[in-house]
Write a structure and sequence with these properties.
Length: 118
Amino acid sequence: MLGAYLPILLLVIVAIGFGLVSLVMSSLIGPKKFSVLKMSPYESGCEPVGTGQERFSIKFYLIAMLFILFDIEAVFLYPWAILYKKLGMFGLIEMGIFIVILFVGYIYVWKKGALEWE
């Protein structure tokens, strides 16, 4: 019974071994010439502005969460579209309810001003 898991165990050992060997070899063989220019932060060819510890506005995180929330609806719409004929009227009503709930949430977020980026 455990013999069936031997290929998986072997794959895990090879993957971990490859990662460790790559790290060790790059630290042993790789060049170690440090310079001020090499150690400076890189921002798409522009001079860095501010520190690396700046705080982001809560609006940034709110927009990101809302994007994920409303984007996930596509994950639920795709299987429904594939199985539309098998689900029949029941599937249509359920998806209609789902879309109405999402639309109400979208209107609520819009009215609260959460989508305003100032």
